[in-house]
Amino acid sequence: MPAVIITGASGGLGKAIARRFAAGGWTLILPLRREMGGLAEELGEVLEGAAGRGGAVGRDDAAGRGGAVERDDAAGRGGAVERDDAAAPGALHFFQADLSRPEDIENFFDEMRRRGIQADALINNAALQNLQPLTELDAAQWDRMMAVNVRAVHLLTRLFAGLEGAQGGADGNSGGRGEGAAGNAGVRGERAGGAPGKCCGSAGRSIVNIASIEARRPAVNHSHYAASKAALVQYTRAAALELGPRNIRVNCVSPGLISRPALETDWPDGVERYRKAAALGRLVEASDVAGAVWFLCSPAAGGITGVNLPVDCGAGASPGY
To answer: Within 13 A of 40's CA, how many CA atoms are on the CB side?
Structure first.
């Protein structure tokens, strides 16, 4: 089974992405700041639904304990999920990692190698987003935003690219921590074949970075966030250029305003303005973004790299005046 690393899977968008890959039978590798028992149960349900059978699926939690998640079908408490009934069930792996700490990111990959866990795709979804007027934005707040939204993406990308699996050959000079060929056994390289909707075949491995339409059109009090997302879009292009020879595709998805519970109550004027600006007349659903990420990791996108794909319900098509 193909495997995907998804950061920020405890949030609304990250959870939707995890559910989409779980529905396709992928193994999920989730670095989280803290263990999320409810998330494990919910994603276990989706994995079970993809398998089309009852029972329990083993998992490793953030503390490294083995176990099983008991669950009902995919339409249980997590709601209905698009399923790939041909897919076999994937596994579910949790790791504890604070992505603002470089040492945690390195330890995450070390632990993956130690446990023999491989990955075919990396989804850099974790991000900070908070409001702060530019004149009140101090160095610590700026650095914290950049540490999670930009630096962590680079470190995760570097380590993912620097590891090759047993089926892909080893490269001791591929940008990892310098363990050499013997240590580069944690992430799969290209595998033969590749069923539709799954990695990897000639499509190679894939990295998808989650940016934002604010990379081009910043919002008030979002100067640090908008700058971080603009940096991420350009980093995506640079990474695609350098990692293409290794058969690693790097793309970016830029969501518009994503619907969430209570958003319309908390920000009614913003929601109304967005609906009027969007060609489709609605907010973006997390599932819209998850579908785009899924596509970019599939063989159908095998010739696509270095692209920033807006998922904004057509808000970018608005004249802007």
So the answer is: 23
List beta partners, residue 58.
Answer: 68
Distance, CA of 293 to CA of 301 (rounded, Å): 10
Per-residue confidence of the chain (321 residues) as pLDDT tens digits?
Answer: 899 999 999 899 999 999 999 999 899 999 998 766 677 777 777 777 666 543 334 344 433 333 333 233 333 333 333 334 344 557 899 999 999 999 999 999 999 999 989 899 999 999 999 999 999 999 999 999 999 999 999 999 999 998 653 234 334 333 444 443 333 434 443 333 333 334 555 679 999 999 999 999 999 999 999 999 999 999 999 999 999 999 999 999 999 999 999 999 999 999 999 999 999 999 999 999 999 999 999 999 999 999 999 999 999 998 865
Q: Which amino acid appears at position 207 of this protein?
A: I
Distance CA 149, CA 231 (A): 9
How far are the Cα atoms of 134, 168, 208 from residue 202, in angstroms, in the given order? 46, 12, 17
b/e string for 124-145 if b means 16 or more Cβ within 10 A? bbbbbeeebeeeeeeeeeeeeb
Q: How many angstroms separate the CA atoms of 189 and 205, rounded? A: 7
Assigned CATH topology for domain 3-317: Rossmann fold (3.40.50)
Largest CA distance in the chain: 58
Report, in angstroms and rounded to the nearest whole number, the Rg of the chain calculated over CA atoms.
Answer: 19
Q: Is the pTM of this model over 0.85?
A: no
* 10: its two tokens: 């405890």
Give me the sign of the Cα torsion angle 76, 81, 85, 88: negative
